[in-house]
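ok new one. same drill as before - structure tokens go in, u give me an amino acid for every spot. 99 of them this time. try not to just spam alanines like last time pls lmao
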């Protein structure tokens, strides 16, 4: 797999920003079939940093319900795989450069 297929998008939340500042951990939404070695290689190629550690988890799907004029609308948000990547000391990834 090529790096652009493995890395779907970075996760930019308040919790993820705190982890970036304090622990040098960056959160990414990744392809479900990607393993830790592929994720590490993709981050190193794409952002030019040294990756120390990769932790992965699968976020489960969530049921959502809305009330509309037509009644209740039920749906489901899809499950996805998340990777928490720790970079080496004195290195960082600028996620806001492309926005």
């Amino acid at each position: 797999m090529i790096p652009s297929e493995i890395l779907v998008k970075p996760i930019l939340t308040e919790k993820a920003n705190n982890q970036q500042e304090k622990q040098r951990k960056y959160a990414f939404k990744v392809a479900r079939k990607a393993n830790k070695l592929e994720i590490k290689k993709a981050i190193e190629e794409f952002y030019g940093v040294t990756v120390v550690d990769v932790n992965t988890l699968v976020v489960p799907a969530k049921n959502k319900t809305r009330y509309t004029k037509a009644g209740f609308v039920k749906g489901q948000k899809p499950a996805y795989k998340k990777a928490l990547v720790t970079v080496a000391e004195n290195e960082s990834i600028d996620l806001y450069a492309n926005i």
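Residues 44 and 50 are 6 Å apart (CA to CA). and btw The domain at 3-87 is CATH 3.30.70.330 (Alpha-Beta Plaits).
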